[in-house]
Amino acid sequence: MPQPVDLSKYATRAPDDLDRDEAEKETEKRVKRIGELMEKVKANGEHAVLIVLQGMDAAGKDGAMRHVFGQVPPYALRTVAFGKPTDEEFDHDFLWRIHQHVPAKGEMVIFNRSHYEDVLIQRVYGWIDEEQVKRRMESINAFEKLLQYDNSTLILKFYLHISKDQQKEELMERVEEEEKYYKHKDGDWRERENWDEYREAYQDAISHSDIRWHIVGTDQRWYRNYRMSQIVVEALENLDMDWPELVTNGNYGE
What we know:
The chain is an alpha/beta fold. The protein has helices at residues 20-44, 61-68, 87-90, 96-99, 121-124, 130-150, 164-176, 186-192, 195-207, 221-237, and strands at 48-55, 77-81, 108-112, 153-161, 213-217.
């Protein structure tokens, strides 16, 4: 039986003894290192990297992409945002639209929302029943194992853990600050009314995942960047990559 996850036991803020200035300096180094390591991933062509970002509205998914992965070479990076399925996507199995966007070897792909939406929003609104949720989680676990073992895909899943009070503050900024108007959606406030239901759905999805979720506090964006960059660097370093050897026909310089 999976160990149940209780998100209320996870902090949404940085530890009190973590100095912000030092953390931001360390984050800057790590972000640069992520870019260097992705150069190796691209050069080797032996691994794919999938980053999954999930979280409540205003949890900071866009900011995480910008601040943590900003040094990844553009030719080794794609980002995909998953919203409401199209009519064509609804006519296929729920993983159909996901599979075509997974990373190739030598590439990092960031999912801004992901295949987990189909066991979150659809569950909250009662569009699928609990038996369908169970089957979909089984399919998700099988799908991720396929990517992991059949295509050497490093999968890093992040739940960006925001408090309800901080979410309200972030959503208010979208109606009060001109440079954030474009982010405002009335629907985000309606979704906020389902906070408890989404929290329960997330806890269940995290609990029943075979590949680990990293739960990262995001009330303080600098801490989100610090913690995420640490996790990504360690995972990429563990791939233990070398630069490819020179391959030549011996005719250079003639």
